[in-house]
Amino acid sequence: MVNVQPRQDAYVSGSGTISAGKYDDVRVSGSGRILGDIQCVKVKVSGSAKFNGKIESEFLNCSGSAKCLSDVEVQKLNVSGSLSIDGKVTGGDVHVSGSFKTKNDLNVDSVNVSGSMRTIGMVKAEVISVKGSLSAEKGAECEAFTAKGHISMNGLLNAENVKITHSGFSYGYSYVPEIGGETIEISRFDDSNIFTRVFTRVFNARTNFRSDVIEGSAIKIDYTTSSVVRGDAVTIGPKCKIDLVEYTEDVQIHPSAKVKEVKKIEQ
Hints:
Helix content is 4%, strand content 62%. The chain has one helix spanning 194-203, and strands at 2-4, 10-12, 15-18, 21-22, 25-28, 31-34, 38-45, 48-51, 55-62, 65-68, 72-79, 82-85, 89-96, 99-102, 106-107, 110-113, 116-119, 123-124, 127-130, 133-136, 140-153, 156-166, 178-180, 183-188, 209-215, 218-221, 224-236, 241-253, 258-264. Strand 1 and strand 2 (10-12) form a beta hairpin. 35% of the residues are buried.
């Protein structure tokens, strides 16, 4: 049943629909269908919901399962369940501890992923932090990008500061075709964890982070495979496999790294 109270709160606790309109709170704890565009203060889905129109809200909290067929404009988005959005996502802070999928671009203030996030579009934010899994088909653009987990992109990762700590396991290696930034640091998970050491030794599962081009001012990488690494001060750490290193100021190469060509670029 749907109960729309005088102060325009809309609830679905069993099975029902909500019409397009302006509300304070929209809550779905059963199975609900929202028929058109809605404007509200808060959307909360703890059951199953399908939004046929655009959502404009200050808060959207999905701990159940929801699908949005149009654009979403929200100041705070929390996903601890499963959320799929076909349209563009714009607004403030995005927190993902569950599963979040989009078919279009995200243009928000910040993205924090401890679960799984996959977008066919591009991710734009001031800050992007990943401690789970991020897949961005068209790449990402931000001021600060930090990742400790799995990342996959088919476009450019462009950030002022990039820090990536990858798992290096063959079942889920990370790949970004092109990385550009001021400072770039790519490293592997610390092997001090006994489980990690045993797993690696038994299954020989370690593999490198992969990229085609890495370009920045200060670059420090290890366990990385790339065609070109280009920067002012470049440090190539253990187990790297690089075709060409170009630098303007300084270069350091670990004995275990394999570098085919090193070239100093005169300014």
